[in-house]
Write a structure and sequence with these properties.
single chain; mainly alpha; 3-stranded antiparallel sheet
Amino acid sequence: MPVCLKCGKEIDPPRKFCEECGALGEREMRDALSGSQSKYKPRREHNTVSFIILAVVLFAIVGGLGYTMLTLLPNSKKIQTEAQANICHRNLVNIQQAIDKYYQNSHLYPPPGKLTAQNPLVVDRYIKNVPTCPTTGRDYILKSSGISNPSNQQQARVTVHCDSGLKGHAL
């Protein structure tokens, strides 16, 4: 005869619960716990199909983002020209600073003319290498200005110039 697990009274065989407390009987509890009447369903394990679908979706998202980033990058000729002008201007500033430092150390200006590997600025390592204009590829030119005594050109101030004639290619 089944016994109520809650109050301990015997449960009549046709009944499935205790008349005293309303609890389920021992057999009914076993059936409920065994899962035969349970609504619980175990989780499915991930299978390869769902993994492949997830991988394809992620690949499409990453590819779309990459394509968007590439199309948004500046690619116009105007931006390229401005960048080259900025590089040329930076080269001119660096060379002029090297000229000024050379003058402070030797009290002489480097000789005017094209800036080549034989120039004292390069030989004495005031600049590491001979820069050229990024747009034209030509050498920079050192010009002397304000010559008060033509026989003593070393005392004339020397400045650097880019002979491209383009906007932004000057100090």
